Structure formats: C-alpha cells, structure tokens
Amino acid sequence: MSMNAPTMPTQEPMQPMSNSPMEEKESAWQDTWRALLRHRSAMIGGIIILFFIFIAVVAPLLLPFGYNQIDADSRLQAPSADHWFGTDDLGRDIFARVIYGARISLWVGFFAITGSIVAGSLLGLIAGFYGGWRDVIISRLFDILLAFPGILLAIAIVAMLGPGLENAMYAIAIINIPTFGRLMRSRVLAVKQEDFVMAALAIGMKNSRILLRHVLPNSWTPIMVQGTLGFATAVLEAAALGFIGLGAQPPEPEWGKMLSDSRSFIQSAPWTMIFPGLAIMFTVLGFNLLGDGLRDILDPRMKQ
Amino acid sequence: MRFKKNWILLFAFAFMLSTVLAGCGGKNADSGKTLIFGRGADSPKLDPAIVTDGESFRVTENIMETLVDYDKTTTNVKPGLAESWEKSKDGKTWTFHLRKGVKFHDGTQFNADAVVWNFERWMNRKDLPKKGDDFIYYGSMFGGFKGDKGHVIDSVKALDEYTVQFRLKKPQGPFLANLGMSPFAIASPKAVEKDPAEFARHPVGTGPFKFESWKKGDSISVVKNENYWQKGLPKLDKIIFKSIPDNSARLTALQSGDIDLMDGLNPDDAKTVEQNDQLQLFKRPPMNVGYLAFNMEKKPFDNKKVRLAINHAVNKEGLIKSFYADLAEPAKNPMPPSIWGYNDKVKEYDYDLTKAKQLLKEAGYEKGFKVEFWAMPEPRPYMPDGKKIAEYIQADLKKIGIDAKIVSPEWQTYLEKTQKGEHEMALLGWTGDNGDPDNFLYVLLDKDNTRIPAQNVAFYKSDKLHDVLIKAQQETDKKKRTELYEKAQEIIHEDAPWVPMVYATPPLAAQSYVKGYVPHPKGTESLENVDIVK
Fold first, then answer.
1. What pairs with residue B425 in β-bridges?
2. B508 with B263: CB under 8 angstroms?
3. What are the residue ranges of helices labelled H in B330-477?
4. Which residue ranges does the record assign to the Solute-binding protein family domain (chain B) (predicted)?
5. By CB count within 10 A, which of A222, A297, B300, B529 is most buried?
C-alpha cells in the first residue's frame, strides 16, 4: 500500500478549491490506480474479471458451436478436443454455453447493480441531506426492504412480474437498493457537517449544486467498493433465480439454470455441472477480491 | 487402572449386546416379508371411485377388486370377482355370476347385493366423501349419471345371492373392459355407509392386502389379507408405498437398499441399473401416448397448415434418442399400437423443416409468429422431462421462424389451466386404463369432451369424428369397431389437432431378490404375486 499518498478526496476535501482542481483529481486517480496495481489480491480479482469480460465480448466470435446447437447424436459426451467442457443432455457444447453464460451473468450483474446504485444513492442523498420527513419515509422504506431475506424478496418480485431474465434483473436491483441507500445516507450525514459544505451554504449556493458538486463526489468511494462486492452477490442471486426456474428462460445458457438442468446427471455426467459451477465461483471470487482490495485502498483508516 | 479396565469391559459388553439385539430385529423384519415400493407422489385419496390418477389406483388395486380383471400383460378380460358372465343377443343385458365365499376385510360377505349397492352409489352420486368430490370416471365411462340422457346403465339387479344382472339402455362396446377399471372396484357397503369420508382414508375391499396406515405425504402401508380367496396369495406380508418425488433420489434410495422396487426411473439411468448385479430392470409394456396439443380455438392454430407445419418440425427420432434412451417409439396416431384397432396405414408426417417452412408460408405466416409453449413441470411416464423436450422442439421451431416461449406452471395448475383452454400449445400425455381405443380417441379428441374442464385440450370439434366414435361405441362387433376406429384415426391424422410424439416404454427398477413382479401396461398393478427371495 502507498506510504505517503498525499491527497484523497475523502480526506482533504478542501483541496479541490485550489487553482488547479483537474490536476489534483488526476493525481488522486493515479494514486488509487497505483495502489491497486500494488495490491495483490485486488489484481488477481481484476484479472479474473477482465478475463470474463474478454471472453464474453470476444469469444462468441471464435466459437465453432452455437450455444443452442442441439445434436442428439453427441449428447452427454465427456470433455474432449471437440467439446472442451463436454456436452449436455441435448448435445449442446457446454464450453459455448458457459461463455455465452458469462455475457448473461455480467450483463445482469452490471445493470442490476447500476440500477440499485442510482436509485439507492439518490434516495440516500435526499434522506441524508434534507432529513426530516423525507428521511423518515425513505429510511423506513429501506427498513421494510431489509426486513425480508433478499432472495425471498427477489422470488416474490419475480413471481409478480413473471419469470424471465429481465424481471430477475429488476428484482435484484430492487433488493439491493437499501444497501446502497443506507451507505449513501450515512456518508452524506458525515459530509454535511464538513466546513466546505457549510461554507457553500453560507455563500448561498443552491442545494442541488451543493449535492452534486460537493456532497456526492465526497461520498462515492464506499459506494464504489460496495458496488463491486454487490456485483458478486448479484451474479449469485441471478444464478439462484435461474436455478429455481424464475430467472433466465430456456434456451438461454444462464449458469444457474445450467446447474439445475444438470442435477439428474450428477452421477453419470458430472461435467454438466462442474463447469458452470466453476464459472459462477470464479466470477464471484473475482469481484469479491477486487472489492476487498478497493476497500483496503480507498479506506483512509486502513491506509495509515 | 482397574477402574478403567472395568469401564472398557462394560462398553464391550454393551456393544455386543446391542449388536445381537439389532441383529434379532433385522431377522424379524426379514421373516415378515416387507416390500417397500418407491414412487413419485403420494395418493391424493384412497376411494378409487372418486379419483382418476394412477398413484391412487396403485394402492387401491391391492385392497379392492373389480368384477372382471385384466390379464397380466394385456387388457384382455379375465374373471375377477365374477367367475363368469353372459351377454344377451342384443348386447343390452349382461348377467354376472359371482365368486362364492369371498369376504370383505371387515368380515361382511361379498355378494350380489354389495355389487348392486356399489353401482347404485355411483349412478345416484350418494355417499360422497365430501362436498366437491364426484364419481368422475363413472360419469365419463358410462355416459353420465342416472337421469342423464347419455347414461348407459338402465338398471342393476340382484337375481339371487350370487347373480347380478345389468340392463343397458343401448349396447356399449367397451362395457366389459370398463368394468375391470380400478375406479369400479367393489367396496364394502358397510364401511362406506358408516362414514364415506373415513372410507376415503381407510378403504375396505376384498383384495389381497388390507389397509394398515397412512402417513400423509410420506407412505401408505398395507398388510396381508389372511383370508384372501386365492389360496397361497399374497406372498408378501406387508407393502409400504413410499413417496420420493425426485427420480434420481429414488434411484439412490434403491441403490442403497432403502427401497425394494421403484417406479419412474429416468430412462438415462436404465443402463446403470442393468449394469448393477444387485438390481434388475423392468420395462412396462407401452400403452400410452405423449403429445403436443394445439389449442384450435386460438390463432394461428385454427389454421390447419400451421398445425401441419409444426407436425413436420418435430424431430421425434432425435427426441427419443435424447430423452427416452431409445425406450420409446415415434408416434403417428393418438393411440399406441399395443391397442387393437391401431391404424398402421396412416403415414407419419416426416421431420422436414423445408416443408414446414413452405407450409407456414402458404398459411400466411412467412415471418413466423410468437407463441407460448406449455411444458409439464414434472416427469411423467410418457414424458420423462417435459421442459427439456420443449426446449428441444423450441430450437427447431426457431429455425422455421416460430418464436416459442416455454411456460411451465406447477403440475396441478398446469392441468387445470389446460383443461380450461388457457394455453396456446401444450405438451401432455395419456396412459390407457382399459385397453379400449375408446379410452383414447373418445376421451381425448371427441367434441363431447371439450366442455370445460376438457380432456380434449386441443378443443378439436369434428362432427365427422364424433359420428364415427359414437357409432363405434354402440357397436359390439369387434371387427366393425376396428374398422370404425381405423377410420377415426385417418380423420384425426388429416385434421392434425396434435403432434402425436411418442409411445413410451416406462422403465422400472427393483432389487434382484424381488420376484414375480410383472408391470401392467395400464400403469399400475396388484402385487399379490410379488415375492422376496433372498
């Protein structure tokens, strides 16, 4: 970890008031970046994630098999040179399905978490900054959402909207809103007391400008860390919904669904569940490692 | 040190004692031959007259018997509780001579009055266990109930203590075969009259086994009827019907010796069973059909060309290879070849995607369409994995431009909603109960059966077919009936309300020490001849 990192947005918020704010920001970014490169487990996590993103984007172009190419003659074949991960009970290439599955899982994770970050942060900002009745309503709303076990709430939401990948994504986004909302609210409550916010208020700056220019930039780091960790949870939740048949619908090659489809072949064709299982494991591991690393780097307390 | 030694001795003694005692327990259980039958679901109710499902019949067939019985592997009729029978020339009067000296499990005598009482119970709809129950199967096999226009049975009379006479309003071809069906098993009048609701939980009949206990959702036990009229039977002392919903979990239970015999083996696991010396594989003779029904009341399935196109787009051979481990035959008629009257001259719609595309184009759906495709959520004997089968067909439909979305609600809901016609196209199947073509063609495709709740989920309403089927029902000459049913199959093939997909041979597995088990084509059987020889 960096020994003498000079400026962090959270630490010395008054700094950007100096005459060259762009330079300062850049150096903060660079500093974080350098710390990240030096953080071993975060690097490993990052590489895993980049790898999955890479295969999701590029590899479908190179694959000899489509993910839904059914071939009754070559069903349940063990891994071989033709089929690297073997074939499933419909004779589809599991390698192709796992790779297309990466697209689905990353896509669901990204949009679900972006959705909950946007909604959660907005609600958290309002609750924390304005307080009063707004805070009461929003905080109780978070409490209600948190009162349900996450996956149960997701099942209920999907049951209402109807099974499907998109609806599963909405459900995951909704159940993660309170996590980000509360985090943002607590940050805002702290930042609100800082001198520079007071000063801005004193010179009569508009609330919206204070929120966007001063409060938000000084509260976003924990959200970013939580977002990375939340990504992992979202991938798992999508797989869980897929497993019980509420997420991705056939023939979409979603990892959780592949797992549940292969249950009856645990004994006779274990590869049908090993590879999608490994894919889920590595993706989640990657995001968790990166998230932990980011927390170490960005948390000012951990730095000293 | 001595103290320690004593403790060791005490432990050793306790260990030996417990081993010996446990050994004794095991021996006792062995000498009282108990068979544990593993199956997919518990019985809903145990009064066979008010149910239509196999899991109920599987148990009640061992407790209650019918007037006539079926041969071991066919549906040829043989004597049951009736030793012999005659039919009048006009086919309207049937006289049955009952077996003497048969007693119900509650000690009351089986006689003509008991038979008459049972039939009057059904046709007058009295002594129903609870509100909402009905004698469904009686209604659909004998044209309704007393007072209905189509009701076939005019009267049932006891001529003397052991002779019963049925007078029919009109001749009914499948009458005798119908009497052998499990729902028409003779119950002890005394037991039903005492408390019909209790009877549906604790059936009393004349069968080889007596009801013992029922743990709801888990198991049902029946014990040997010492006074059974067939000497030397049953061979077992006790049967426990245990429900284990998951097919692979049930196989694991069999492999570990927790159960002795199992229904609903995954076709893929048949090989595993065959290779295992401790186990034996059984194949149930096929008397079923798995099909895809189009809802002809909904667009675009009112268009025959669309239905034909999909008929050409289903790769039956591929399906059989993928899901049935070759334990099935491709279907072309709505009833299997094991039933007489099967029309082998019908020419199957072959798997040909170009033709399918062409037909869609002619129908005006060149760009295809979107459709909801219903698939059953649970393994059935005629379709081991409905959702996967749907996924397989989905890929081919996509190639001809049809975008199918697979829908798979829970099983009870699935049946209720398809019977109401909420589906667009749906996978379903049927196992015959009495071996008569009427039990397939009339039940599943006649316009009479499109009233909701419909058995005819294609909502196929053909007057031409209706005329032929009714004529065949009233005809008693088998040769003429055969001709009529062959004609009926041609009409159905021409109109294509279904894609007939497979005739499956459901595999079963048992421990190698289970002897004398013969699976019956109708899907369930009485187990009086089964034995355990270790």
1. B294, B373
2. yes
3. 353-362, 386-399, 411-420, 438-445, 463-474
4. 76-449
5. A297
Q: Is the distance from CB of A138 to CB of A123 less than 8 angstroms?
A: yes
List, for residues B29-48, the tens digit of each pLDDT value: 445 889 999 988 788 888 88
The three-point CA angle B309-B383-A87 to 5° equals 85
DSSP string, B229-262: SSTT----SEEEEEE--SHHHHHHHHHTTS-SEE
Amino acid letter, B56: S
Query: CB–CB of B69/B55 below 8 Å?
Result: no
Q: Dig out the tokens for A111 from the structure.
A: 């949009």
Q: Tell me the domains of chain A and their CATH numbers.
A: 55-60+93-299 (1.10.3720.10)
Question: Shortest Cα distance from B421 to chain A (angstroms)?
Answer: 20
Task: List the alpha helices (DSSP H) in A39-164.
Answer: 40-57, 94-130, 132-147, 150-161
The contact set of B with A (CB < 8 A) is 247-248, 266, 268-269, 272, 315, 317-319, 321-323, 385, 387-388, 390-392, 394-395, 398, 405-406, 408
Give the count of beta carbons closer than 10 Å to the beta carbon of residue B222: 25
Task: Give which of B454, B509, B445, B37 is closest to B272, Cα–Cα.
Answer: B509
Contacts of A273 in chain B (CB under 8 A): none
Listed residue (B62, B68, B64) closest to B434, CA to CA: B68
d(CA B367, CA B360): 8
Percent of chain B with pLDDT strictly greater than 70 = 94
Helix B478-495 to helix B438-445 angle (10° resolution) is: 40
Does ipTM surpass 0.85 in this model?
no
What is the CA A6 to chain-centroid distance, rounded?
29
Asked if B318's CB is within 8 angstroms of A264's CB, the reply is no
Structural domains in chain B? 34-42+216-285+507-532 (3.40.190.10), 65-191 (3.90.76.10), 288-504 (3.10.105.10)
The answer to whether A265 contacts chain B (CB < 8 Å) is yes
**Using one digit for the tens of pLDDT, what is the confidence trace for B150-171?**
788 888 998 898 999 999 888 8
Say how many residues make up chain A: 304
Closest by Cα among B192, B206, B63 to B124:
B192
Element (H, E) at B19: helix B2-31
The Cβ of residue B1 has, within 10 Å, a number of other Cβ atoms equal to 5
Confidence of residue B22 (pLDDT cuts 50, 70, 90): low
The answer to whether the CB atoms of A75 and B321 lie below 8 A apart is yes
Check whether B289 has a pLDDT greater than 90: yes
- The single-letter code of the amino acid at B500 is P
Distances (CA, A) of A235 to A51, A172, A286, A291, A297: 16, 9, 11, 14, 24
**Model's pTM, two decimal places?**
0.76
- The DSSP code for B170 is S
User: Which of B425, B292, B300 lies closest to B367, judged by CA?
Assistant: B300
For residue B364, how many other CB atoms are within 10 A of its CB?
Answer: 11
Report the candidate in B99, B104, B101 with the shortest Cα–Cα distance to residue B118: B104
Residue B515, Ramachandran bin (φ over 0: left; ψ between -120 and 50: alpha; else beta)? beta
Alpha carbons B521 and B284: distance in angstroms, whole number: 6
Residue B358 has pLDDT above 90, yes or no: yes
Can you tell me whether residue B486 is helix, strand or coil?
Answer: helix
Contact A286, A45 (CB under 8 A): yes
Round the CA-based radius of gyration of chain A to a whole number and report it.
Answer: 23
